[in-house]
Design goal:
elongated; 4 helices; mainly alpha
Length: 114
């Protein structure tokens, strides 16, 4: 279960770093501290993290990918490598969101036996 937590933390830190790059310190702090919700044993806290990762996948990485690729195309610069990198970032964030299901499942199993 530790690797699931690590992936979720890295995904949120990556999103926070994206906002820090543009000088949005408040958003950076919120996203960097969001994995602390994993200390709450309730399943709703993990669902909030999961929904946040899925929303960031589309609203942050999807929009950024579109803008960066359009900028490269307009500048007549190569954009294939950028699209591969952003596809990897999107896939990583979705994998981290999927890992939230495993954490919820493990926590529910522990409630049954305690």
């Amino acid at each position: 279960m530790w690797w699931r937590i690590l992936l979720i933390c890295l995904a949120y830190l990556l999103i926070g770093a994206h906002f820090l790059r543009f000088g949005q310190n408040a958003a950076c702090i919120v996203f960097a501290l969001s994995p602390l919700l994993l200390f709450i044993k309730a399943s709703w806290a993990t669902r909030v993290l999961q929904v946040g990762l899925v929303a960031c996948t589309f609203l942050v990485w999807g929009v950024s990918s579109f803008e960066y690729i359009q900028m490269r195309i307009i500048a007549e610069a190569p954009w294939y490598r950028l699209s591969a990198i952003m596809t990897g970032v999107i896939a990583f964030t979705l994998l981290a969101a999927w890992c939230c299901n495993g954490i919820i499942k493990k926590r529910n199993q522990r409630k049954i036996f305690s």
